[in-house]
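WP5 quarterly update. Target: NAD(P)H-dependent flavin oxidoreductase. Source organism: Sphingomonas hylomeconis. Length: 305 aa.
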Amino acid sequence: MTLPFALRLPVVAAPMFLVSGPALVIAACRAGIVGSFPTTNCRTAAEVDAWMSEITASIDGAPWAANLITHSTNERLADDLALVAKHKPPLVITALGSPAPVIDTVHAYGGTVLADVIDVRLAQKALGAGADGLACVAAGAGGHTGTLSPLAFVSAIRGFFEGPVALGGGIADGAGIAAAIAAGADLIYMGTRFVAASESLAAPGYKAMLAESGIADLVVSTAVTGTAASWLRASFDAAGYTVDGGAPTRAYNSAGDGAARWRDIWSAGQGVHAITGETPTAAIVDDLERGFRAAAARLADWPAR
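Structure tokens (predicted):
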């Protein structure tokens, strides 16, 4: 499908808890992709207002996205949604609940709502609730992850839906972008690759651990949040969590070592191997574009091979 805005690359720098802030959003937008942040990264609605004001003043009309948690436990949803109406992000990505509470507000100013989903059943429910499109989180994603193969997931979605689809899950280079677009995605939902960006809010230790890690250094566990999520094993172990025979056991006591569960246990997806160190967002996007163009050329040249 044709997206309602122009991009250098069909990539969304996915909204990441305690990682995505105004600097990363602005850098992503200036580099020609969609920058985004979860409003839960802000302690107050006033801070959300300040972040959105800074972003819109700095990106010269480029597309950006706000991520809203629509679960009933989000007591600040109404306040954050009012700020969405004020600042009008072209994309609003809902998560951990039905997109229904945001639809009318976002549609009133002409915005697009994507619902974050991990399976076909949730995708159908989100579309039934009025979402314009989907952010499909597949196996290999960092943080709260899905279980479906990315290519199988997008193929299944295209069996009943022709609207906008963003696909995420282990996609970390230009070739992965090309593969997902060829398979039927409109956008790539890419998080892990941007955690070590110079502009991200991630702690220096987090960025260093990413650069030292590969796929074998990940653990998927429900122990931390109650929902399956992909973590850097070294941070998972350091916080006192263990995985015994695949069954996670919470052995963590924040009072014991001063660690904070949300701050010091670090997530990563299966694209972690692509990170070699802290890198400016602009340079990451340059690298992604080179890989994307090379992959597209390989596809075009395939019959001659």
